[in-house]
Amino acid sequence: MNMEQQSQGVTYQPEFDFTTLAEWARPLGSGEGAIPTATPKREQQVFAAWKEELNWDERLLEAIADPGNLRRAYRKVKSNGGAAGVDGMSIDDVAEWLRAHPGELRQSLLQGSYQPQDVRGKSIPKPNGGERKLGIPTVIDRIVQQAFVQVLTPILDPQMSESSYGFRPNRSAHDALRSASTYAQGGRSMVVDLDLEKFFDKVNHDVLMARLKRKISDKRLLYYIRQMLKAGVIDERGMRHEREEGTPQGGPLSPLLANVLLDDFDKELERRGHKFCRYADDCIIMVKTMAAAKRVLSSVTRYLENNLKLKVNREKSKVVSASECPYLGYIIGAAGALRVGKEKVAKFKEKIREITRRNRSRRLGETIEELNAYIRGWGNYYKLAAIQKKAEKLDGWVRRKLRVIKLKQSKRVYTIACFLRDEGVREDHAFMVAGSGKGWWRLSKTKESHRAMGKEWFRKQGLVSLQSVVCKG
Fold it and tell me: Exposed (0-12), middle (13-18) or buried (19+): which is 362, by Cβ within 10 Å?
């Protein structure tokens, strides 16, 4: 029976409040359309009700096409922003279309006429070199994919491994790092660091669909997912390419599908008794000896390539000491102590230099606002490491960069001297420093500049201290 025959004569009258599914727990984050948080007790209550009211596993499409679920998906896609797809329609254009065609998207899903469009290909540079290929679906397709995610996540997520952390409710990179630290403290001093070559581009559709069929019985839903996977790619030159493999990054559904595929790998590692942490396709396995690590690398490579049809990058996959293992931006140090690698600190300083460029014509307050957002984000991510002393030095360096901006914006000797005097510097010292002829960087280091623009002065300007951010962790 084809899709159209299956759905002929559908008149959907909900027998159960499908909106309950997307509200089975408090939303993760502040947005109303945020993906629900997984709480086992609430999950059991909701699905017990589902199974009592209807044959839920064969009617998932009705839950996805529920108007409340689609509205939440629209709000989530809107809050995420993002570029238009191949049809050129922005989120505002789609909002107008949805108002002009009420119920049309839902009916197309239920009647089998919905067809995902091609995705817009885009390449972006990776931080460590090379390019990452993105596939950007149209806004309408992103809404549909988000609607799928909102219904499928509470069904599929509870079945997944406890050692998987990426793109899952109530789980984060910090959770993965804490687990890795605990394993290292327990004597697992060797790490098998796996690198899956172009993972999202190389996912085998048949292997993925076979895993989905074990968990989902609604054939209409499986049909749509297959169509989403097969959507062509329009590259940056306007050429269309058929897609026979891969689940391109850029759509809301790809991370969930990736976790479904790799969950088999997780379960195999658990069956073998390994301790591991996986964040999306970034996986480390922690063992006690070098010999064991080499055996594990060889055996899991065979499993991934033979069973899941994935390609392991043998040049980048390696066995290393835990004290030298970079993972999710951290280094797993001696005895499990997490630290920040030198390259991450260098990247922090590079970004600060970009924000505080002297030739940017804008107020000091605007620069501080941009700095604050970056400092909070960087500090909150790296607060698991003991970097209080490093943060104190970086704070001093950031303040000096801002002193340069303030002094340069004052421009004239008289203006600089008056500013220094007004901030508590003796008048004769203020004029002597302002007229010294020193460059801006040297001038920012004088004791008079420090006295005028000390920690308290910057606090009043609203500058966030990196040290205060990391100490909260």
Answer: exposed
